Amino acid sequence: MLWEGNRGLYALLQAARHAGPLVRVPRLGWVVTDPVLARRVLNDHGSFAMNGEGGVGHLWTQLFGEDMGRFFGGARHAEVRTRARDLFTEDAARALVERSQGAHHADLARRLAAGAVVDVADTARVLSGRMVADLLGLPADRPDAAYRDLFAAGERLASLAVGTTSSTDLDPATVARARAIVAEITAAVPAAYAGAGPGTLLGRCREMGFGLPLSRGLATLLVIAGTETGASGTVRTVALLHDTGQQRALLADPSLTGNAVREGLRVAAPAPVIGRHVARDAVVAGRRLRAGERVLVLTYLATNGAGPFDVRRPYVPETRQLWFGGGRHLCLGAAVAREQVARMLGTLHAAGRPYRITSRRAARRVLVPSYASLEVSLDLRRG
């Protein structure tokens, strides 16, 4: 799947697999594959920044301006996390997923029990879009096609970053294409920003005095983080459970669901690379990283070093939630992502039967490796 989705990423991961925990690669910068060193980098916000060449904040600043750059590197980021934290608790995540996806999961369970073949990849894209729309405060009464379009636009925007491994500087033509996609993604944001309630992210942005341009940037960021990575982690976990034969263990003992979710996200690592800019000289593992250089944290290798997917694997402290990042930029929606995966697994197993994958097709040229299609049906045979 990595090969089909992003061949540059695949080649980088293959080359780095045997290169050591921290190495300097010409044209790329420093490459980190060890989970402990990865967390050291992600937790040191003074030395390793999201703004500047190599950091994801550099990409977003080019699209949305200096206000977005100041958001990634300043106090407003901490303010958003503090003021919006209650929207992302475990209880809030369960309520959000139930509110935005519950009826669709019930319908999916009925269709599977009746013998239908369903495309889990398409379903995950639609449900992720509905969840993000609800969280932002966008209209919720749109047909599934609207959320497919939202996901596709997010995927097109994310794919523009496929070639930024060696440099996060975007040429003017790429910036123009990206801004056109952003306008498509955020077409409904101005109206929602004006009227969204306090239980939505856009409502909180308005209450905090964020202007519409910055709010549009945050909405776009949530669309990418909430749909692309969420759908990928969900669908790939479904595939891993099937391919390893471990869904039967989960059927026999549903208390393993939390383990299955954690293992699926660990092995899939929906954010396989995290970039940082070296803001000031720092020493990591005896190596001096100098200001102006770049760091690529290969989360895919850092998390997969613990071993293959195993629903009975005990908690691995070295990799704890590294697939969600680390430090003050740890994914705010981690609980929502876990709940989405758990809910999909529960729906597929609602009839008490294992599912089988009848066909699959990997997504091509995407930033976040995933399936374009993953069709499943229940094994309804007796016994």
UniProtKB/TrEMBL annotation:
Molecular function terms, GO-annotated: heme binding; iron ion binding; monooxygenase activity; oxidoreductase activity, acting on paired donors, with incorporation or reduction of molecular oxygen
Family to which this protein belongs: Belongs to the cytochrome P450 family.
Protein name in the entry: Cytochrome P450
